[in-house]
Every structure is written in C-alpha cells, then in structure tokens.
Amino acid sequence: MSFWSDPIRVINEWLTGLLASLLPEAWATLLSNVIGVVAVSSFGLILVIFLIWLERKVAARFQDRIGPNRAGPYGLLQTIADIVKLLTKEDSIPEKADKITFNLAPIISMIAVLLIWAVVPFAPGWIGTDLNVGVLYIAAVGSFGILSILMAGWSSNNKYALLGAFRAVAQLISYEVPMLLTLLVPVLLARSMGMVDVVQDQSVWFIALAPLAGIIFLVSSIAEVGRTPFDLIEAESEIVAGYHTEYTGMKFGLFFAAEFLHAFTVGVLFAILFLGGWRGPGAEQFPILGVLYLMAKSTIGYFIVMWVRSTLPRIRIDHMLDLNWKVLTPVALALLIITAVLDKLFSETALRVPALLAGNLVVLALAWAIIRLGTRRARRERKAFKERPEARAA
Questions:
Q1: pLDDT (0 to 100) of residue 271
Q2: For residues 136 and 211, what is the distance between their CA atoms, to the nearest angstrom?
Q3: Residues 6+ away with beta carbon under 8 Å from 239
Q4: Distance, CA of 11 to CA of 244 (rounded, Å)
Q5: What is the DSSP letter of 123?
Q6: 73: cis peptide before it, omega within 30°?
Q7: What is the pLDDT of residues 226-246, one digit of tens each?
Q8: For residue 94, what is the DSSP state?
Q9: pTM of the model
C-alpha cells in the first residue's frame, strides 16, 4: 500500500507500532485513540476558520457586496483578526448569573457538533468509530446543542436570553420530529443504522429514491441550526441576540464557531445520507479520493444553506410552527410509510428506483393539493372588517 493512496492508514499503522514498542498494549491503544480524537477535533476547529471566511464571501456576492477584503489576500486573514479581537475582549459575567452553567454552555455547544464527526465515514476505513446505531447516535448528540442553548438562556439572568431559550425549545424540539422521520428513510433503504452501511448501500444515491425526504431533512436541519429564515432564537430586532445576549469574548466565539461548524456538518450528513457519501470513481482503490468526494458533496448541501440564509427573510414564529406541524411532519410521516411499503414490494426488482421515485412524487402532489385547499379555505373564512371612515374634502 502506497502512502499517497491511503496516508491515514499508513500513519496509523506506523504510530500504533511505535506506541506498542514503547508502552503496554492497553496504554498504546488508549493513547492512539486519544490522538485520533484530537486529530478529528482539530480538523473541525480549523475548518471553522475557513468556513466563516467562505460564508461571508458567498453572502457578500449574493447581496452585491465584496465581503472581507482588507486582512490578507482576498480577506483570508479576516477570521484570524476576528479571533484575536475576541481573545482580547473583556470576559464579563452577569452579577446574578449561574456561573458554572453560564461557562459550561458554550463548551457543550461546540462539543455537541464535534461529537457528530466521530461517526462520519470520510473514506473506506476512515472513521472515528463505526457504530451500528450511528444514525441514532447523531440524533442523540445533536440534542446537546439544544441543551446548551437552554443552559445559556436560563443561567444568564436576562429576560431576552430567557425568551431566546423559550423560542429554542419551541423551534428546535418541533423540527426534530420531521428530521428524525426523514432520517429513518435512509435507514429503511439501507436496512441498517450504521453510517458505513448507509454509504455502502448507495450504489444508487438515496436522493434518487427519496428526493422529498432529502428536501425535508435539509429544511428541518436548517431550522435545527437556527439559521435564516428560522433564526428566531437570536432575532436581534426582537430579543437583542437571544440566548447569547450576555456572552462576550471567546465564550461568544464558541457559540459562533459551533453554529458555522454545525451548518457545514448538515451538509456532510446530507452527503452521507442522500448523496452517496465518499462513493465515487476510484475511491475504493484510493481512499484519499473518497475524502475529496465527500467534501465536494458536502459543499453542495452547505452552499444551499448559505444561499437560503443570504436570500430569505425571517419568518414569523406562528408561520414557522405551522410549516412544521401542518406540512413537514405529516408529509414526512406519509413518506416514511410509503417508502417502507414500496421498498418491501419492489426491493428485489428493477422497479425499485422508479417505484420509490413515483411514491415521492405522489406524496408531493397530494401535499401540494391539500395545502392549496387549506389556503383557499382560510381566505374564505378570513374575517372582513368594516371600512374605516375617511375624511374627505367637501
């Protein structure tokens, strides 16, 4: 095996052999795992620096601006300058805040995102840990992010922060329902909850079998991240900055970095669950190609997240909840049932892909017809007010 075809495996075997020659086997294994955790976490933290610059540039282009262009070539050092600024700011804590909870919240926010990367299959054999319940693990550790927002809002002793936390409960927990339902669609198609099995089973990308599930997953994930148009939990024009109103310096920076990394992680999960993950020409023989394929596919999902953030305005909270409970959740539930039935009927035939695609289109058409019907009924039942008297010239 050459170094350039699979460098991670070569480095891992060399490091394991070196540690085994110096330490007892148990200690060598433990130290090797710790080094792996540090390497994956460092990759995520370094990636955030680039993502912030990229998103500011892309948002600027959407809004006919130039974006960062002062610090370094093409503004590449702007994020570094921002980090230095945050590090030199005063770290203040409200007088009556719960200090332990207040300090823990930003750390848990970042850890919640980094833990997801433990089960991400970057390439054949390149994975932190291959859990047979990887999809369930992602849903579980993703909830830590909600917990960190609640901790920040409650411990700040600030009414705007607490209101932001209340909104987080209504929004994030609500949108977990359609997200988890659509997560079950790739699980059904792959007949496994392991992330590696989900990727291996995508000889045909699941987006071709379940495009509607992919769209609902992406929409509900954007709401989970709390980005526009679902950024009500930190609506600056209504509740100042929401749950992180009282945070300054690097504690605020950790919330900020966790949001950007979470947005890219949504793109990674979308690529793994619906776009074939690392699969591509030559990826089996040269695993490093798999990493490039995964990053390229993840960028597609991340670009959609940036596009939506840069173009759509914030929606009202009642519209947001209506979208979830009256549209996304019923459609996701119907889609899950249709997928289970059709996949069972056509699993061993050549009609599997067209049958599942047709099932998605039927669910979409029915949902659209019901939405149109409900909209017309709402317009008819809308209360008409009397015309207000107007002053007119004699």
A1: 92
A2: 21
A3: 160, 163, 164, 167, 245
A4: 41
A5: B
A6: no
A7: 777 887 766 666 667 677 788
A8: -
A9: 0.84
Q: Which residues contact 79 (CB under 8 A, 6 or more apart)?
A: 49, 50, 52, 53
Distance CA 236, CA 323 (A): 22
Residue 98, pLDDT score: 83
CB atoms closer than 10 angstroms to residue 155: 25
Asked whether the beta carbons of 113 and 44 are under 8 A apart, the reply is: yes
DSSP codes joined into one string, 56-91? HHHHHHHTT---S-SSSGGGTTHHHHHHHHHHHS--
Report the pLDDT value the prediction gives residue 239, as an integer from 0 to 100. 67
The answer to whether the CB of 222 falls within 8 A of the CB of 303 is no
Measured CA to CA, the distance from residue 265 to residue 22 in angstroms comes to 37
Exposed/middle/buried for 29, CB within 10 Å: 0-12, 13-18, 19+?
middle
Give CA–CA dist 242/244, Å, rounded.
Answer: 6
123 forms bridges with which residues in the sheet? 126
Among 136, 140, 224, residue whose Cα is nearest residue 187: 136
Amino acid at 297: K
C-beta separation of 259 from 47 below 8 A: no
Measured CA to CA, the distance from residue 309 to residue 324 in angstroms comes to: 18
How many other CB atoms sit within 10 Å of the CB of residue 391?
Answer: 4
Q: Are 239 and 160 in contact (CB under 8 A)?
A: yes
- According to the model, what pLDDT value does residue 40 have? 79
In the chain, which stretches have pLDDT less than 50?
none
Taking the C-alpha atoms of residue 135 and residue 217, their distance in angstroms, rounded to an integer, is 13
Residue type present at position 328: L
> What are the DSSP calls for 247-280, one per residue?
--HHHHHHHHHHHHHHHHHHHHHHHHHHS-TT-S
How is residue 162 written in tokens? 């607490």
Taking Cα atoms as reference points, which of 138, 189, 231 lies closest to residue 353? 189
CA distances from 169 to 181, 284, 346 (A): 19, 43, 40
Alpha-carbon Rg for the chain in angstroms = 24
